[in-house]
């Protein structure tokens, strides 16, 4: 019989969690109750808070004595993130659910993030109306708005909890096993303005027996790709769209953080990297562009996305950082430069065409990448078929080597 883990504070949210537990068991699914609260739960859980604290070397009684909510949340969050993956690896549960406010969400989601992709995860939270990226990270957690505070049972909360239970039970009961075809997985990065390049390269690689996972370079996409690389899923990387570095350095809205472009070097897999969409920084609607950028070369991609052309000075800084990241790899790395344009709107006659700015980028990379990085320069724009196929061929060469 399938089992759903119920993760939560069975001291302060005990009544609500028991309601969830009863609904799950009525559908013929077992439950595993894990207590993340500080004080005594209203039922006897299957995994206690003392066990969670002990997993990170802390005595639960010392937390209780301190009466420090922040310390308690931190310790129990770390303990939960340690214990939950162990329980899953032991086959103790098949899916996981939790409910909570800001504290409960902060306690539960790090543990959910630590579970493999594909394990059903549902978090009913008051925090879902805001920025949920700290809670979801690069995982596949389903965040469900609680609508009302997750405090007490009422007509609204019971309906929401019931829907959440139906979701987790449905996923657990109807889980499908997909047989791997044995094709090596390739990660590729794409943006709207580099789509033709990646489509061509993807089709070419798939004809040669590879399976290509495409990640949209919107911050979350880059982070997800790096996480999958580190987890060992990926055999090679076609990282032709490194635009997230523009947002990280200049201050746009689609940054993937300071560790982008590190994972392939860390795990030692082949990577072919390019400078796709380094001509642009991303903002929201045009009214949201910061005041200091209002007089820059702006391009309204659509009503909700405004692009800003990067300057030569910015590209020098971006090129320096990319070179530093590529130099982390001891071999297995190629850098390909499309000398005729780095995006669909950075070619002659288009809005972001700026050969001088691009040449500063190219020269920075030429001068700063080390001897362990092969540099190839092509008299193409990035979306030319010749460039895409050359990049795909280079990656295959590295993979075979």
TrEMBL record:
It comes from the Bacteria. It holds the Pfam family UPF0261. Residues 2-176, 183-398 form the UPF0261 domain. InterPro entries: Tobamovirus_resist_UPF0261, UPF0261, UPF0261_C, UPF0261_N. CDD domains: Tm-1-like. This is Uncharacterized protein. It comes from Ureibacillus massiliensis 4400831 = CIP 108448 = CCUG 49529.
């Amino acid at each position: 019989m399938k089992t759903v883990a119920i993760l939560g504070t069975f001291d302060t949210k005990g009544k609500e969690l028991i309601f969830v537990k009863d609904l799950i068991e009525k559908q013929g699914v077992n439950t595993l109750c894990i207590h993340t609260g500080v004080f005594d739960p209203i039922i006897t859980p299957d995994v206690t808070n003392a066990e969670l604290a002990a997993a990170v070397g802390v005595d639960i009684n010392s937390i209780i004595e301190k009466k420090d909510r922040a310390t308690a949340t931190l310790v129990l969050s770390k303990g939960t993130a340690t214990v939950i993956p162990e329980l899953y690896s032991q086959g103790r549960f098949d899916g996981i659910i939790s409910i909570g406010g800001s504290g409960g969400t902060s306690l539960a989601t790090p543990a959910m993030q630590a579970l493999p992709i594909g394990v059903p995860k549902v978090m009913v939270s008051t925090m879902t109306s805001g920025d949920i990226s700290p809670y979801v990270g690069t995982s596949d957690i389903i965040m469900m708005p609680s609508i009302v505070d997750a405090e007490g049972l009422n007509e609204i909360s019971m309906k929401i909890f019931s829907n959440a239970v139906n979701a987790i039970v449905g996923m657990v009961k109807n889980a499908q096993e997909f047989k791997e075809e044995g094709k090596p997985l390739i990660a590729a990065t794409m943006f709207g303005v580099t789509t033709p390049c990646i489509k061509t390269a993807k089709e070419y690689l798939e004809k040669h027996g590879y399976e290509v996972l495409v990640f949209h370079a919107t911050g979350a996409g880059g982070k997800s790709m790096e996480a999958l690389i580190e987890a060992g899923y990926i055999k090679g990387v076609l990282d032709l769209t490194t635009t997230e570095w523009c947002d990280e350095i200049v201050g746009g809205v689609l940054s993937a953080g300071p560790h982008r472009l590190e994972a392939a070097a860390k795990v030692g897999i082949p990577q072919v990297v390019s400078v796709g969409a380094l001509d642009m920084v991303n903002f929201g609607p045009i009214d949201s562009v910061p005041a200091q950028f209002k007089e820059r070369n702006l391009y309204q991609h659509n009503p909700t996305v405004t692009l800003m052309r990067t300057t030569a000075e910015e590209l020098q800084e971006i090129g320096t950082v990319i070179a530093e990241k590529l130099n982390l790899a001891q071999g297995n790395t190629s850098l390909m430069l499309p000398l005729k344009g780095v995006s669909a709107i950075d070619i002659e006659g288009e809005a972001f065409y700026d050969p001088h700015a691009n040449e500063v980028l190219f020269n920075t990379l030429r001068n700063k990448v080390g001897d362990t990085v092969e540099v190839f320069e092509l008299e193409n724009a990035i979306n030319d078929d010749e460039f895409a196929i050359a990049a795909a061929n280079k990656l295959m060469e590295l993979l075979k080597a």
